[in-house]
TrEMBL record:
This is ABC transporter permease. Belongs to the ABC-4 integral membrane protein family. Residues 22-237 form the MacB-like periplasmic core domain. Residues 268-403 form the ABC3 transporter permease C-terminal domain. It comes from the Bacteria. Its main location: membrane. It is a multi-pass membrane protein. It is found in: Cell membrane. The keyword Transmembrane helix applies. The chain crosses the membrane at residues 264-284, 316-341, 373-395.
């Protein structure tokens, strides 16, 4: 009917308050879907971040189940509660189905009279995974270690700045002096391998009084990140009980909000979208109900039921498109605001940062929230289809009344 489009335009123009209510309801559902989906993706990315910079999917350690031994109050020692792996066990991890690479490293602490520093022993030949990747990719001054090199060290940028130490100078660890050959900036995406000082693995083993084949951390790269739990189980079968840092375990550290957002963001987004649809259905039903007399008059003068439903379908489609557009803009804006939420500190800072005030901690970045085209498309589809469907259902319900009854209804 040629009168349909002018009629729809006139209704939208003269019933602005009701139209705005429908658009707001649709927009709310679309915005919630986008914002909640983006929040979930942000928590998932935050959980992956501490491992992403070292190209690892899990960091494996072995809890020390033996009787605590007498430890000196000062000097170099292993972190409390950690036992070691030998080179044979690292090779066993490397051959686990699904594992691409397993690289061992050694973390030790140096308890000094005024501060405690962390030292990482790094295999100079391993640059693809683990702390060796940091020394290869994130240097800001100098160079990394050469194979077989001794008596050298690379410093973390904050540590070097705090102690005003530059490339070419020397640093003392325990009772040994090392030449500084490089300075590295450890980014948030590599926090699982953060240390104050990096030494060649053989140097760190000698410093800690350990055999040459001993490490206490193994950085594992998995072919498919979804297989991390299965890989951890296989590693446990081969080398005994281990503790593994994985993205899932980091999500657990985030607490209830992080777990819900990361694991159930899709469900939460769908619930938000449904809530918006319910509101839009309520508004559209009210829009149709207040025009019951009008519908009866149209049908009395010869309009068919399909014509009336077509009018409301076109009207609901227009309102749904407007609501989707507003909701997408609002959802993207909300996601942008969510990115200012500080990303959770999933890993403890090195001792010199954590408890002794000897080095500045890195600033915490915001939550890595991003808006995906999938979320935007889903929000638009749900908004338009939902609003149009709600308008059609409401109109069909109204047109079931006989014209005479519609004319006398309030």
């Amino acid at each position: 009917m040629t009168a349909v489009n002018p009629y729809v335009r006139s209704q939208l123009r003269h019933r602005r308050r009701r139209a705005v209510a429908v658009v707001a309801a649709v927009a709310l559902g679309a915005a919630l879907l986008i914002a909640l989906t983006s929040l979930g993706s942000g928590f998932r990315e935050a959980a992956r971040a501490p491992l992403a910079g070292i190209a690892a999917d899990l960091v494996v350690t072995r809890p020390d189940e033996g009787t605590p031994s007498e430890q000196p109050g000062r000097g170099v020692r292993q972190p409390f509660g950690l036992a070691t792996f030998d080179s044979g066990e690292v090779r066993q991890m490397d051959t686990v189905p699904g594992v691409d690479t397993a690289v061992g490293s050694l973390q030790i602490w140096d308890f000094g009279p005024r501060s405690t520093i962390t030292i990482a022993g790094v295999d100079p030949t391993q640059r693809a995974v683990g702390p060796g990747r940091i020394l290869h990719h994130d240097l800001i001054a100098g160079r990394s270690f050469r194979s077989g090199e001794q008596g050298v060290a690379v410093l973390d940028r904050h540590y070097a700045a705090f102690y005003d130490t530059k490339v070419g100078q020397r640093v003392t660890v325990g009772e040994r002096s090392y030449s500084v050959v490089g300075v590295v900036e450890v980014k948030d995406s590599a926090q699982t391998a953060a240390s104050n000082i990096y030494l060649p693995l053989a140097e760190a083993q000698r410093l800690a009084g350990l055999p040459a084949d001993r490490v206490n951390q193994v950085h594992v790269q998995v072919g498919n990140s979804a297989d991390t739990e299965a890989v951890t189980a296989h590693i446990t079968d081969r080398v005994g009980r281990v503790s593994a840092i994985t993205p899932d375990s980091l999500v657990q550290i985030m607490g209830a909000v992080g777990r819900i957002s990361a694991r159930f963001s899709t469900i939460a987004a769908v619930v938000g979208g449904i809530g918006g649809l319910v509101l839009s259905w309520t508004a559209l039903r009210g829009l149709v109900s207040e025009r019951t007399r009008e519908i009866g008059l149209l049908m009395a003068v010869g309009w068919r039921r399909s014509h009336v439903v077509g009018v409301f379908r076109a009207e609901a489609l227009a309102l749904g498109l407007a609501g989707a557009a507003v909701g997408i803009v609002l959802g993207v804006a909300l996601a942008g605001l969510l990115s200012y939420i500080p990303a959770p500190d999933l890993l403890p800072a090195p001792p010199s940062v954590a408890g002794h005030g000897e080095a500045p901690a890195a600033e915490s970045d915001g939550l890595p929230v991003s808006v995906s085209l999938t979320a935007v498309g889903a929000a638009a589809l749900v908004s338009v289809v939902g609003a149009t469907g709600a308008g059609i259902l409401a109109a069909r319900r109204a047109t079931r009344l006989k014209p005479a009854r519609s004319l006398v209804s309030l």
